[in-house]
Amino acid sequence: MIHSMTAFASLTGTLGATSWAWEMRGVNARGLDVRLRIPDGLTQVEATARKALADQLARGNVTLNLRLTRNEDAQALSINATQLDAVLGALDAVQERAFEMGVTLAQPNAADVLAQRGVMTQAQVETDDTALSAALCADIAPLTAAFVAMRAAEGAALAAVLDAQLHEIADLVRRAEAAALARRPQVKAKLTADMTRILDDISEIDEARIAQELALLAVKSDVTEEIVRLQTHVTAARALLADPKPAGRKLDFLAQEFNREANTLCAKAGSSELTAIGLELKSIIDQMREQIQNVE
């Protein structure tokens, strides 16, 4: 069963005043390219994530992002006693000075005092880094499992598309084989005409040279080898689709071989029907190659 390299998974969690959100995204790549975006100080989390991805994935460009958030509601209010004393002392000095100058001031209330800069502060609730790291590491296994499950689901859909395309290719190869068989009388007539022309152009007959020319002309028009190779490639591709191991690179190479044989078939066609079949083959093979680019 093949896997796609395209997938997405997310997970959230909370510990004390800290909450977090994981996001993992994957797209196709020639090899395995893992990019981690994890806040500084979480070395163990990064190492655990990197190992888990390396163990589970063979190919793909994978980005893993971790966003940490501090819950502001969990922040405790506290009074800075030093700043409070300074503010109260300043207020007292103002009141004394105003009395000396015969100025009457309204008495400040507690809210006025607390509103002064630095009197009231919010103290961060400390989170145990060891406990946080352990909680984050525990998320990695289920997050990776969800990511791999989506790759498998996408791969199943991809396998169905590729299987249908291989069925079309196999059908076209059978049609090519029938067309090649049907054109044999035309090929024989053409070979005879070509040999007649050659014999008319030479005064002395070299039987060895004639046999060589006949063999060369026959090879140039014979598509049996290309048809057999295409049939072999279809069998090999189906085996790779059924193989549980990553097969993307092998399928990509096989698609190139499919294309090579289709090109040769078109070049040797010698008939409009066989040429049309060859062009259809090339079209389906190109579509298949596009799908294969996303196979792990």
Question: What pattern of helices and strands is seen along the backbone?
Answer: EEEHEEHHEHHHHHH
What percent of the residues sit in helical stretches (DSSP H or I)? Answer: 55-70%
Question: Structural class of the helices, strands and pairings?
Answer: alpha+beta
Strand line-up in the sheet with most strands: 1-2-4-3
Helical run tally: 9
Notes on the protein architecture:
This protein has helices spanning 43-56, 81-100, 110-114, 129-182, 184-201, 207-221, 224-242, 248-268, 272-292, and strands at 7-15, 18-27, 32-37, 60-70, 76-79, 120-123. It is α+β, with helices and mostly antiparallel strands and 296 residues long. The longest helix has 54 residues, at 129-182. The model has no long low-confidence stretch (mean pLDDT 87).
Summarize the structure.
By secondary structure, this protein is of the alpha+beta class.
Secondary-structure map:
Layout: E1 7-15, E2 18-27, E3 32-37, H1 43-56, E4 60-70, E5 76-79, H2 81-100, H3 110-114, E6 120-123, H4 129-182, H5 184-201, H6 207-221, H7 224-242, H8 248-268, H9 272-292
List the keywords.
rod-shaped, 9 helices, alpha+beta, two-stranded antiparallel ribbon, 6 strands, 296 residues, four-stranded mixed beta sheet
